[in-house]
């Protein structure tokens, strides 16, 4: 089954005849003559390396549409809506601080009123309620007659 094949010596290889492959498949076919009138229009387009190469017009990519001009006016540093939000936040904070300060002032006024002014108001109300004739006569207050009767009875039950 396994048959041993002797090694080929180099002097016997040179003796063998060299038979090259046939060249018939590589012979050029007769070329047709192309006239300029038969050829379509050619356009030059850039390739991947930036060089301009010719290309039939029907195979060229469609031309790129011209973009519309951009508006290059400078934009504000902050968005106007953001500016409104910041202004509203600052305004409401100032309003809250003012309301808090006002409430504190009212509480301080009430505390001062109860300690000193209430006494003066009470004296003014008492003076207003005092009868007019007592002030006119120079006497104090209204006239009161007091009658004191002492009745003593002694009973002895003894």
From TrEMBL:
Parts of the chain that traverse the membrane: 85-103, 109-130
Source taxon at top rank: Bacteria
Keyword list, A-Z: Membrane, Transmembrane, Transmembrane helix
Keyword match Membrane: yes
Protein name according to UniProt: Integral membrane protein
Species: Streptomyces thermogriseus
């Amino acid at each position: 089954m396994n048959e041993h094949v002797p090694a080929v010596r180099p002097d016997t290889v040179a003796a063998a005849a060299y038979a090259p492959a046939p060249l018939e498949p590589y012979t050029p076919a007769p070329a047709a003559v192309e006239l300029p009138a038969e050829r379509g229009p050619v356009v030059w387009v850039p390739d991947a390396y930036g060089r301009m190469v010719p290309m039939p017009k029907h195979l060229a990519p469609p031309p790129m549409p011209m973009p519309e001009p951009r508006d290059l006016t400078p934009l504000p540093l902050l968005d106007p809506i953001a500016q409104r939000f910041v202004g509203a936040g600052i305004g409401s904070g100032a309003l809250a601080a003012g309301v808090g300060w006002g409430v504190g002032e009212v509480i301080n006024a009430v505390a001062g009123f109860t300690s000193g002014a209430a006494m003066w108001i009470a004296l003014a109300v008492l003076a207003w309620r005092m009868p007019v004739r007592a002030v006119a006569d120079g006497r104090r207050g209204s006239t009161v007659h007091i009658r004191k009767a002492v009745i003593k009875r002694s009973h002895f039950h003894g």
